[in-house]
């Protein structure tokens, strides 16, 4: 598989010496039996015509010293362009567009993103050490702001920012040479720089070393970013950017690939037992450092900060804002590997969570799964409580049942979804389902009691027995009423309304 389609330049027939023609014939023969370093699920046309074109391009370089001109492939996350199998430099033409568009931030939540290529993060670029890049940046005519690009792979003023400043409806062009191998962040650098980055204008460019990268089975593109909205996490509708929160570094969302759930469910990354996975991980920031971790795996190799130095057998790697890392690991057992920012409340309460779904045979010697289960509650133990503070938050009162449900959805996402899941399905043998729950439908006030006082001991929900511990959650009467009303009116539950008066009575 190849990164680029090659064409000869300029548009005239070159003349070759007999030696050059002999080399051309030999290269043509060798190209037919080249090594394919592609991922198993990626496809590429490796026909005779394309092989001959690349051979002609290399011969052109040998004949008159000019670099072949080829078109760069750009991919949207989590996809990565195929590995480079050239052993010679090229002039790579890269064309990218900046687009301002409203897209999903979370279920029911939208945001006016500023993007490279129409998605967050921006498109992934892959070039080779020694390549000369001809970069074209176009700003969509519908944009309201000028944009540019600062590539950390560029050696030159502003990383290309000054040369690429582009007003709406215009295209800028500049050139640079990829001098140093590594994984580099790029971002917009128009003032206010932080606002452009916070709105999603960042991505990654990989400069492969001349000798290439080692072969792996899967490669994926994952990039973290922090977002600042006028509303709280989960508040519905189109959420504007909040400069005050951004300056104070009080992120409402910390996300992988631009939205809550971008790498979960049907969007989970896929791998098979025995395969080696390489993750190109970036952190756009603009503010927060990432403690990147894959639950259930140990990184066999990490190129810290995206550079040439390798670390081995790493559990969690720090990725600064505006930095990157390359991680590799072999998957040995099936199951769901959970990618998180191990500043852990960001993962389970702000969205920095993704899944690698691994299929294949079990290996009980490596991991047995649960072989026994029992509850240990020492005498005098009690359920813990969560979220108690000395300063009560201001109470926002719902005017009717529909407002109560809407407010409750946000409270559920922040406090309950990590265990009971956004769809209320729970986790088998750990946390009971709230969806179609016969336990709650029989008496919704059980949910009030569980929130106020915690819950320990065995309960049976939808025919399954659960014996776990739920901590109490410190919410005011209004918020308890809202979240319980949301639960009993969601996921085919029977409906109804819980009021703050019901909660107050339950406290007594």
What does this molecule look like?
- The protein is of the alpha/beta class and 508 residues long.
- Helix content is 20%, strand content 29%.
- The chain is built from eleven helices and 26 strands.
- It has helices at residues 18-31, 48-64, 193-198, 243-248, 345-350, 401-415, 417-420, 438-442, 445-453, 477-488, 500-507; strands spanning 5-7, 69-71, 91-106, 109-116, 125-128, 132-139, 150-151, 171-177, 182-187, 202-208, 218-227, 237-239, 253-256, 269-272, 276-285, 290-295, 299-303, 310-314, 316-319, 323-330, 335-341, 353-359, 385-386, 459-461, 464-466, 472-473.
- The strands form six sheets. Strands 1, 2, 3, 4, 6, 8 and 12 form a seven-stranded mixed sheet that branches. Strands 13-11-15-20-17-18 form a six-stranded mixed sheet. A five-stranded mixed sheet has the order 14-22-21-16-19.
- The longest helix has 17 residues, at 48-64.
- It is globular and about 85 Å long.
- Mean pLDDT is 86; it is low at 1-40 and 42-47.
Write the layout of secondary structure elements.
Blueprint: E1 5-7, H1 18-31, H2 48-64, E2 69-71, E3 91-106, E4 109-116, E5 125-128, E6 132-139, E7 150-151, E8 171-177, E9 182-187, H3 193-198, E10 202-208, E11 218-227, E12 237-239, H4 243-248, E13 253-256, E14 269-272, E15 276-285, E16 290-295, E17 299-303, E18 310-314, E19 316-319, E20 323-330, E21 335-341, H5 345-350, E22 353-359, E23 385-386, H6 401-415, H7 417-420, H8 438-442, H9 445-453, E24 459-461, E25 464-466, E26 472-473, H10 477-488, H11 500-507
Helix pairs in contact: 1-2, 6-10, 9-11, 10-11
